Amino acid sequence: MVQEYAISVVISTHNRCDMLPAALESVLEQQCGETKYEVIVVDNNSTDRTKEVVEPFLARNANLRLVFEPKQGISHRRNSGIAHSNAPIIAFFDDDV
User: Fold this and answer.
1) Residues 6+ apart with CB under 8 A from 37
2) What are phi and psi of 85, to 5 degrees?
């Protein structure tokens, strides 16, 4: 069963695993009242430790998902985020937010 969310936050990243913890903590700590939101990290074919950095956050946050996108480029990242989104509103962030 797909949970309904009001907002999907798509964070795209490529080989910037050192920046991801701060970005994820910032987004996941947001208080939105009754508004449900999901966070989708799109790993754009990273060769660093991106997956390992995101995994502890996945274990603690049911509204967080990691998606792998092998085709490089911002449009591929965003389109992948849109394809995996479960909300009518999509906000795009980069890993350095």
Assistant:
1) 5, 6, 7, 8, 9, 30, 63, 87
2) -75, 150
Over residues 26-49, the pLDDT tens digits come to 999 988 888 999 999 999 999 999
- Which helix (H) or strand (E) element contains residue 10? strand 7-13
From the centroid of its chain, how far is CA 53? 12
Structural tokens at position 18: 């050192």
Task: Tell me the pTM.
Answer: 0.92
Diameter of the chain by CA atoms? 37
Side chain identity at 65, as an amino acid letter? R
- Alpha-carbon distances of 84 from 4, 24, 31, 63, rounded to whole Å: 13, 18, 23, 13
